[in-house]
Write a structure and sequence with these properties.
- There is one protein chain.
- 75% of the residues lie in helices and 0% in strands.
- The protein has 14 helices and no strands.
- It has helices at residues 8-19, 22-30, 33-44, 49-52, 57-87, 90-101, 104-110, 115-131, 135-149, 159-170, 176-206, 212-221, 234-245, 248-260.
- It starts with 7 loop residues before the first helix and ends with a helix.
Length: 261
């Protein structure tokens, strides 16, 4: 509560789903009953405490909840790949799907209960809307994800798409200025409405008016907050990129000069 780095606007919907077992119940319906019962019966016969704890209903509910998060990520990926196939080419969608399947980082993030993982889902939806040229829906998803998840660093991934949308509006014949101003006004309105709702929720929990999005940004940008979990050498990040994204990491470095110049 001292730093207010996390917004309850992100946790409350997940808490509601967890308490009402919406995601766990949905996943449980997709699982065959007999194998699941046999697995639990087998675990009950084990003497290992870690295996016995797996029969705990709350722990099982937590695992099913994470499975629900992974299933939601899979749905977002399918929608994204479908959009790539429809608006770019089937070949690009195929190879993108192969890279997603072989990306260890993507698989680990799918079931993680973390703002950064939830942001990945939002990015997949936002980029799908961008390719479909649904610019106003794109703005709603991008703004809502940035403010409600409380992970402002992810907005960098949406900036290039936002600039392209503004450029397309500016180059549109007949009312270019009006189109840009209309889009910016709409984005500002959505931002004010979402931020007001998020701050109202956080005030109920923190007891004061605060912005978790601004807090986490300033905490990491100043005062040594970025050193909270230690400082690693550059080789650490290179190894993680290669581990999590294999061939995509060096290919991305090769394309970077083309993007800059």
């Amino acid at each position: 509560h001292e730093y207010a780095l996390r917004t309850y606007a992100y946790l409350w919907p997940l808490q509601w789903l967890g308490r009402r077992q919406v995601l766990p119940s949905t996943i449980a319906l997709l699982l065959p009953s007999n194998p699941l019962q046999q697995l639990l019966a087998l675990e009950e016969q084990q003497e290992d405490l870690s295996v016995i704890h797996a029969t705990n209903p709350k722990l099982l509910q937590f695992h099913l909840f994470r499975a629900g998060l992974a299933a939601t990520m899979a749905i977002c990926e399918v929608l994204w790949l479908g959009t790539i196939c429809q608006h770019l080419s089937p070949r690009k969608a195929f190879w993108t799907g192969c890279l997603l399947l072989t990306g260890a980082g993507m698989n680990h993030a799918a079931a993680a209960l973390l703002p950064s993982s939830t942001w990945i889902m939002a990015y997949l939806l936002a980029s799908s809307l961008f390719l479909r040229r649904n610019q106003y829906s794109f703005c709603v998803v991008a703004v809502t994800a940035t403010l409600t998840i409380g992970w402002p660093f992810g907005v960098v991934t949406c900036v290039p798409m936002g600039l392209v949308i503004l450029w397309n509006q500016w180059t549109t014949k007949g009312g270019a200025t009006v189109g840009v101003m209309k889009l910016l006004s709409f984005t500002a309105l959505v931002t004010v409405m979402v931020q007001a709702a998020v701050m109202w929720i956080d005030k109920a929990r923190y007891g004061r008016w605060t912005s978790a999005t601004l807090n986490i940004f300033t905490y990491n940008a100043a005062g040594g907050g970025d050193e909270l979990y230690g400082v690693e050498p550059a080789s650490y990040y290179v190894k993680n990129l290669l581990l999590n994204w294999n061939i995509v990491a060096p290919l991305g470095l090769c394309v970077l000069p083309l993007v800059i110049f």
